């Protein structure tokens, strides 16, 4: 008898006996059932802490990008923060496989004539073993036993890099993800297509609604102009946003909502994001605006670095997107330490329209490219209520931080702080695609200009060497 069947049966029996044990607490228990002479006995150990419905949530942690083969040191810092709620934002494992770059041969994976995809999916057993590797890690197990854990997926735990609705293994991997998240056997998420869901925590007046989107199961190909969420998920999201109001609404997207880095890094590299589907992002903004819902924040992952971005011209108040990526996977982690300054220089020099630039950032760019996790702390007792959003490093120290008064993200309250001038207001009302071309392609112009200078210098030196060698040869002949 499987553990999920045991838990479902145990829950029914406990209800008959009038035990006050929630499904979410039960599902993390280690249950043993002994059937003897029609007598059923239950033994439970290690029930996880459950969020009290009458107590407001004040500490939330979130993250993405956890490669199960990399050191899992960051869980110690997350445990030290002691979150009531932890939110997975995707790439919870790296379930797909990656072939090395090959320029030549029959298995070429790079260049215009490549004949083999660089990424390929794992089998069901391989995926399950990778999920179990993270789930059984001692530090993560400690978090499971003390905090509520929820989540969605991104491409690598969906099963294939950058994959969308065309991926054939999505239904099997949906079941594996929900098992990883300890989703109850009778959960609607196990019966629906896609892993989108929502949760509400806290008492009336201090409620938090968490909406987790699935941007993989229904997504059309990138740059196709198609859909990100699919019609059924759009209908569901509209109902969620038009539902009972809450003080704070956190929308979790596995990819960035506000930033569109691909618009300024082309043609060198690109990243996924809602900006690659401009019509869909506009529809998302319009849906939030029409719902008149206050206190909406985005949290996101995917890009292997962290930042906080802001957009003021979508709704009646500023929208923020707190990006945390990754827990083990980081952009600086794949670069030799001696060259990391180049990444930081590029992050500082790239044009950005929405990045929140604060003095309390570790680096001048307010981008953090090492392992990190996100934090939301809500100070309900302060007047006004303050939402402190942070990105923290592997030791738990803040590297990016922003305090947002709850009143600032309520409809009709677009009066910005006194320190916000007209220039900042203009900045937060533009998108990367709206930048002048000379600014938007600044990186490409700089790189090609530098290459041109290097080539000219090379040919100049070569020409000078040829001239000097000819003169020297002539002199030798005369002597």
What's the topology here?
Elements: H1 3-16, H2 23-27, E1 32-36, E2 39-43, E3 59-63, H3 74-81, E4 85-89, E5 97-98, E6 119-120, H4 124-135, H5 138-146, E7 148-152, H6 155-158, H7 170-180, E8 197-201, E9 208-212, H8 231-241, E10 248-252, H9 262-265, H10 278-291, E11 296-300, E12 307-311, E13 319-323, H11 340-349, E14 373-379, E15 386-392, E16 398-405, H12 422-427, H13 437-440, H14 442-478
Protein name: PhoD-like phosphatase metallophosphatase domain-containing protein
Transmembrane segments: 443-468
Domain PhoD-like phosphatase metallophosphatase: 74-313
Question: What descriptors fit this protein?
Answer:
479 residues; alpha/beta; Purple Acid Phosphatase, chain A, domain 2; 2 domains; 6-stranded mixed beta sheet; 14 helices; 16 strands; PhoD-like_sf; Metallo-depent_PP-like
């Amino acid at each position: 008898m499987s553990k999920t069947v045991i838990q479902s049966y145990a829950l029914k029996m406990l209800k008959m006996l009038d035990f006050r044990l929630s499904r979410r607490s039960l599902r993390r228990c280690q249950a043993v059932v002994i059937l003897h002479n029609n007598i059923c006995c239950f033994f439970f150990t290690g029930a996880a802490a459950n969020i009290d419905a009458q107590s407001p949530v004040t500490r939330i942690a979130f993250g993405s990008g956890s490669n199960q083969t990399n050191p899992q040191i960051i869980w110690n810092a997350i445990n030290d923060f002691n979150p009531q709620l932890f939110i997975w934002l995707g790439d919870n494992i790296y379930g797909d496989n990656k072939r090395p770059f090959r320029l030549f041969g029959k298995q070429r994976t790079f260049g215009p004539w490549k004949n083999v995809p660089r990424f390929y999916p794992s089998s069901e057993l391989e995926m399950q073993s990778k999920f179990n590797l993270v789930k059984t890690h001692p530090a993560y197990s400690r978090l499971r036993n003390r905090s509520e854990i929820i989540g969605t997926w991104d491409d690598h735990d969906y099963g294939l890099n950058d994959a969308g609705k065309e991926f054939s293994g999505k239904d099997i991997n949906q079941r594996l993800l929900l098992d990883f998240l300890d989703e109850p056997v009778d959960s609607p998420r196990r019966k629906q297509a896609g892993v989108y869901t929502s949760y509400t925590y806290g008492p009336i007046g201090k409620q938090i609604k968490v909406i987790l989107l699935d941007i993989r199961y229904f997504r059309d190909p990138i740059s196709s102009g198609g859909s990100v969420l699919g019609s059924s998920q759009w209908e569901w999201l509209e109902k969620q946003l038009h539902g009972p109001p809450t003080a704070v609404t956190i929308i979790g997207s596995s990819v960035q909502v506000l930033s569109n880095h691909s618009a300024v890094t082309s043609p060198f590299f690109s990243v996924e994001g809602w900006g690659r589907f401009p019509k869909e992002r506009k529809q998302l903004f319009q849906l939030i605006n029409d719902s008149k819902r206050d206190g909406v924040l985005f949290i996101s992952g995917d890009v292997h670095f962290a930042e906080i971005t802001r957009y003021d011209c979508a709704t009646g108040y500023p929208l923020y997107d707190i990006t945390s990526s990754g827990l083990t996977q980081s952009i600086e982690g794949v670069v030799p330490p001696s060259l990391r300054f180049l990444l930081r220089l590029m992050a500082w020099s790239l044009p950005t329209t929405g990045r929140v630039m604060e003095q309390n950032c570790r680096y001048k760019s307010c981008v953090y490219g090492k392992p990190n996790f996100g934090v939301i702390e809500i100070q309900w007792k302060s007047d006004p209520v303050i939402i402190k959003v942070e990105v923290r490093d592997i030791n738990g120290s803040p590297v990016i931080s922003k305090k947002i008064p709850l009143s600032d993200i309520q409809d009709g309250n677009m009066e910005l702080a006194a320190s916000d001038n007209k220039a900042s207001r203009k900045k937060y009302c533009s998108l990367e695609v709206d930048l002048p071309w000379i600014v938007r392609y600044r990186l490409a112009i700089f790189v090609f200009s530098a290459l041109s200078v290097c080539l000219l210098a090379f040919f100049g030196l070569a020409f000078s060497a040829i001239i000097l060698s000819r003169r020297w040869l002539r002199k030798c002949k005369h002597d």
